[in-house]
Amino acid sequence: FELMLNDIVKCQSISISPPNENIVVNNPSRPWWERYQPISYKICTRSGNENEFRDMVTRCNNVGVRIYVDAVINHMCGEGGGAGTSSTCGSYFNAGNREFPAVPYSGWDFNDGKCKTSSGGIESYNDAYQVRDCRLVGLLDLALEKDYVRTQIANYLNNLIDIGVAGFRLDASKHMWPGDIKAVLDKLHNLNTKWFPGGSRPFIFQEVIDLGGEAITSSEYFGNGRVTEFKYGAKLGTVIRRWNGEKMAYLKNWGEGWGFMPSDRALVFVDNHDNQRGHGAGGSSILTFWDARLYKMAVGFMLAHPYGFTRVMSSYRWPRYFVNGQDVNDWIGPPNNNGVIKEVTINPDTTCGNDWVCEHRWRQIRNMVIFRNVVDGQPFQNWWDNGSNQVAFGRGNKGFIVFNNDDWSLSTTLQTGLPGGTYCDVISGDKINGNCTGIKVYVSSDGKAQFSISNSAEDPFIAIHADSKL
Ligand code: QV4
Ligand code: CA
């Protein structure tokens, strides 16, 4: 667990990989997805041990950065995981016998008897019982209806809460009954009062992939907390790529108007660790760092727009290799030396080394995170579009953003809603010591400003806000 405090003071929180002991998979060699196959609830993985985890959480909390843990509580390892101590902390397990003595779990604690399919796995997503009581890709499905199982999980999550984490991503929530999730949440402690006001509850977001057309819908989970809105990245990617006749002008009613869940329930993102490599609803429209120019526009749009609770991805590069449109290297884990995860080094130009992409450090993305914080709570207004892919909108009198995703240049005068003055565009540059290293925008006293954006600009969008005023 090594985060760069220089970076994270600009963010408000970090969502991390599962920190509990997982199976070690050697064929293929240490895939990233081994971390979604728990062996115990000991904090002990390739990212570090419990002491290292405590150190990270403490240092982050001390500078106001919250940590959210990816909680894999629907299942343990795969049914074919074998027996032995091939686990990140050396704990013994026997997948065939359903034995996980380091928790401990035994055969009684799994859904083998409850699942009604002949294979024991999920065979149809049109049947809510299968989706929740049977094995997801062979992963041993925990009997969350049992108080004993709920208690083991709550003990694990409470250990994390006491250490200082602020909340959880509940992995594979679609595969758990909402009532079972609630029963676990009801057992959780309040957040640690060393850093949080008394009575604070953990922030919960549930991973439910609901693109429509299945037995289970996101809305069943609203009572437990936020829910991932997977339509968001799929649709935004389609629009920014201009596929299926989509255009940015149609984004005028982005949000609930597009059939998304209510804004105050939604956790949104352009891509995540699954769909950036073709896993979990990873349609080809999803934008990632591999399509950097379009990706920055998509993330910029997301961070400027008031809909949802936003999350920015931070990735590593891997050698993509497509065979028949499928990346056969979609399993490759983080940059490593013989299995030991490589350090995140920082280059002189502030980017990351060792194949860490660090999208969160890209100027355009970092500055749009600041934009979002500056315009927080301000209304969406002053929308403009050219009927095609040139659009603009403001957030009250605090921020304004203009996009040109057409094949011709943009040149127009727009009402920004901002007080008169000279502003620094935070996409092409930064405001440093009162000067602007990028494009300057002159807003007149009536709030209007002239914008010019070439369609061949490195980044064909401009963003200004109250704190970028010179
Ligand atoms: C294999 C066969 C199965 C067989 C099984 C028998 O494919 O047919 O039944 O062996 O043991 C890995 C392998 C997968 C393997 C499985 C079990 O890829 O081939 O099954 O392990 O050994 C991640 C990866 C999965 C990976 C899993 C566990 O994406 O590929 O499976 O980790 O290592 C749905 C869900 C959604 C889910 C999404 C991916 O609704 O909840 O699929 N997303 C989350 C996480 C995701 C994670 C899981 C859930 C599971 O975001 O990263 O899956 O925790 O949409
Ligand atoms: Ca389940």
From TrEMBL:
Domain Alpha-amylase C-terminal: 381-469
InterPro entries tied to this protein: A-amylase/branching_C (IPR006048), A-amylase_C (IPR031319), Alpha_amylase (IPR006046), GH (IPR017853), GH13_cat_dom (IPR006047), Glyco_hydro_b (IPR013780)
The protein's required cofactors: chloride; Ca(2+)
Residue span(s) of domain Glycosyl hydrolase family 13 catalytic: 1-372
Keywords: Calcium, Carbohydrate metabolism, Chloride, Disulfide bond, Glycosidase, Hydrolase, Metal-binding, Pyrrolidone carboxylic acid
Catalytic activity: Endohydrolysis of (1->4)-alpha-D-glucosidic linkages in polysaccharides containing three or more (1->4)-alpha-linked D-glucose units
Entry annotated with the keyword Magnesium: no
Gene Ontology MF, one: alpha-amylase activity
EC number: 3.2.1.1
Gene3D superfamilies on file: Glycosidases (3.20.20.80), Golgi alpha-mannosidase II (2.60.40.1180)
GO terms (BP aspect): carbohydrate metabolic process
Family, similarity comment: Belongs to the glycosyl hydrolase 13 family.
Protein name per the record: Alpha-amylase
Species this chain originates from: Marmota marmota marmota
Gene that this polypeptide is encoded by: LOC107156534
